[in-house]
Amino acid sequence: MTIFFRLLEAIDKRPVLDQLSLSFRSNCSDGRIFQTNTESFKAFPGASFAYWVGESIRSAFRTHSAFESADTGFVARRGVNSNDDFRFLRSWHEVVAESERWVAHPKGGEFRPFYSDVNLVVDWYLGGAYLEAPRVTEKVYKSAIVPSKELYFRPGLTWSRRTKSRLSMRVMPRGCIFGDKGPAVIEQNDNEENLFWGLAICLSSAYHKLVEVQLAAADARPGGAAHSFEVGVIQTTPSPIPNDAEKERLAELARRAWSLKRTLDTVVETSHAFSLPYPLRQRIGEFDPSSIELEVAGIQSEIDQIAFDLYGFDERDRAIAFDPSHSTQIGVSEEPGLAEDSDEEEGADLIDEADALTSWAVGVAVGRFDWRLATNERAAPSEPDPFDALPTKSAGMLPDDAEPFHINSGILVDDLGHSHDLARLIEEVFARVDAPVPGDVRRWLRRDFFPLHLRLYSKSRRKAPIYWPLSTPSGSYTLWLYYPSLTSQTLYTAVNDFIDPKLKHVGRDVSSLREKGGARSREDEKAFEILQALELELIELRDTLLRIAPIYRPNHDDGVQITAAPLWQLFGHKPWQKVLKDTWVKLEKGDYDWAHLAMAYWPSRVREKCRTDKSLAIAHGLEDLYEDAPAPKTRAGKKGEGS
Predict the structure, then answer these.
(1) Residue in 592, 599, 600, 589 with CA at minimum distance from that of residue 625
(2) Where is this region: Disordered (predicted)?
(3) Nearest alpha carbon to residue 166 among 226, 251, 78
(4) CA distance 69 to 76
(5) What b/e readout covers 515-527, taking b as 16+ CB neighbours within 10 angstroms?
(6) For 161-191, b where at least 16 C-beta lie within 10 A, e where not — what string?
């Protein structure tokens, strides 16, 4: 037997070591002292140095089948690595909903067991041929890595491969192409009950402990250094084979937990599950987040007990499974760049109730969301099957055949008295759904809304706001463009239907005050000065849009950031303006010549590149221009060589 002292939690280890040494010599019990036969480490894959676990944990590796085995019917695989996510990935709300080109793409994310929305899509143009085509690039990888194609589009489970949290396996619906950082578990017959009991086992504390003891070089504690739940670890972790009754109960528990977790997402406006914002959610059914979380905790507890029994964990190892101090390592400092490579999401779904309600009202005003759910004019949709393919629209979005709250061209305006005045429309939405107006809407719209909107619509490193405020320099006049409705005519419409009429109105007021001459009062002088400044800013805004409009050819496949880049000067929000300016500079340099917008602005340059870059040629439908590189010449052998 070998004696081990566990000092990982101690900052100053020397006095603790002295204390434990004294305790051992005095035959005093201490939970940080372990006596283990090192031969037992051979039970673990890779002979992990897990001295702190008991015999029932070690024996699990000897007595149970691996999670990926003929006995379980599960296989675990890594998926697509695009090697250029900015080019090949989008948020699902960035692309045309009916497009078959973009496919749901699980790619890790924050800790969300049982259920998580899939907010990314991957470009599967020409059945993946575009993604896999060779690229001319300075990057190490010249094309995407696309393994396990035969498993794409099937129902399964997925998890975040690299994270600071626990293993968080969850349902992966049909129709997905899973990712390198969001690998998948597939059941050989696509049996949903088997997937659900497998999900329950994978989320049990027993399974997590068996995974953890294999992570000998990483910190498996939530909040510690980032660590990797690699596919190989999932494959080799032992899994019991429940009997039919146990399978049924585990599947029932996991199915219920999925439903509860999805219910929490019905108030998140960027989710496929969205129906209504939190303040209105009770109108279509009971919604109590604290009760939901309490029930999920009860489900987790029952799953844990069933799994402990199936694995045969004794009381000591059950306690170890729940004790974070018995993790692989404690207090490991994070390596430089590690957080950048992790799968945690940047966006935050938490939002103030008033902000959530007003943000939803903006969506109703532009024609994105359906107010009738809040008035019971439209019945709440039923919950989908967990493994159903994701819908092209959330339940809360306006159905294709429904009339919008306010008919518009995809442009609204912050302009008191205008028929398309967004602030007034928001207040009308509140009146229609019988909800109180939360404060000064116009002030909120001008100062608070876009930073909030940008945060809500930025996830998985994609910044993709869909409501665009194009403003005069002082913010005295703002047009709100709705990105999904954007066309090559939008900027002309903005000028013809909004700015020019406003200029005429302001011009008349300026002329009227000018004619007063010396008879102008102090209030007149102030108004005269404001109107003159507004007139000049409106002229500048009009001229800027008319300068951009002739070449501007927006294409939703380019994504929000590329599409908004030519308009960067017109965004008043400085952080977003900087992002767009940097994007525009890179567009000018040729870094994003795969974009349709690049072809619109620099066609000669892009076409020339298509001759030598097959990926670019496919992107622009110019494969006929691509010229295969000649095969390298081989030197003829000298006479007599090889004889």
Answers:
(1) 599
(2) 325-346
(3) 226
(4) 10
(5) eeeeeeeeeeeee
(6) bbbbbbbbbbbbbebbbbbbbbbbbbbeeee
251/192 Cα distance (integer angstroms): 9
Q: 102 and 122 in contact (C-beta within 8 Å)?
A: yes
User: Is residue 613 a contact partner of residue 619, using CB atoms and an 8 Å limit?
Assistant: no
Instruction: Tell me which residue of 637, 613, 582 sits closest to 135, measured CA to CA.
Output: 613
468 three-state secondary structure: strand
Q: Where are the domains of the chain?
A: 2-62, 64-264+295-330, 353-567, 568-630
Q: State residue 162 phi and psi, 5-degree precision.
A: -125, 120
Distance CA 419, CA 440 (A): 19
Eight-class DSSP state of 238:
E
Q: Please tell me the distance from the alpha carbon of residue 292 to that of residue 298, in angstroms, as a whole number.
A: 10
Pair type for strands 184-187 and 156-158: antiparallel
The C-alpha angle with vertex 191 and arms to 186 and 194, in degrees rounded to 5, equals 80
Work out the average pLDDT over 446-468.
96
φ/ψ region of 189 (left if φ > 0, alpha if ψ in -120 to 50, else beta) reads alpha
Phi, psi of 56 (to 5 degrees): -70, -30
For residue 482, give the amino acid letter: Y
Give the tens place of pLDDT for each residue, 19-38. Answer: 778 777 777 877 676 766 66
Angstrom distance (rounded) from CA 82 to CA 562 = 18
Which ranges of 226-270 would DSSP assign to H, the alpha helix? 231-236, 244-265
Which of 44, 38, 40 minimizes the C-alpha distance to 212? Answer: 44
Give the SS3 label for residue 421.
strand
CB 300 within 8 A of CB 202: no
Q: Please give the pLDDT value at position 329.
A: 41
Q: What percent of the chain has pLDDT over 90?
A: 72
Structure tokens at 83: 């090697």
In the block, residue with structure tokens 């690299």: 162
In the DSSP assignment, the letter for residue 335 is P
Angle of CA points 9, 12, 17, to nearest 5°: 80
CA torsion sign, 262 to 265 to 266 to 271? negative
Report the SS3 class of residue 260. Answer: helix
Distance, in Å, from the CA atom of 193 to the CA atom of 252, rounded to the nearest integer, reads 8
Q: Which helix (H) or strand (E) holds 275?
A: none
Residue 499 CA to chain centroid, in angstroms? 36
pLDDT, residue 166, reads: 87
DSSP state of 80: B
Residue 63 corresponds to which tokens in the numbers above? 């007595």
Q: What is the pLDDT of residues 587-602, one digit of tens each?
A: 999 999 999 999 999 9
**Residue 379, by phi and psi: left (phi above 0), alpha (psi -120 to 50) or beta?**
beta
If phi > 0 it is left, if psi is from -120 to 50 it is alpha, else beta; for residue 331 that is left
Residue 349: CB partners within 8 Å, gap ≥ 6? Answer: 268, 270, 271, 456
End-to-end Cα, the chain, rounded Å: 64
Contact 387, 192 (CB under 8 A): yes
Inter-residue contact 170 to 112 (CB < 8 Å) = yes
Q: How many whole angstroms separate alpha carbon 57 and alpha carbon 55?
A: 5
Residue 23: the pLDDT is: 77
Q: How far apart are CA 201 and CA 306, in angstroms?
A: 9
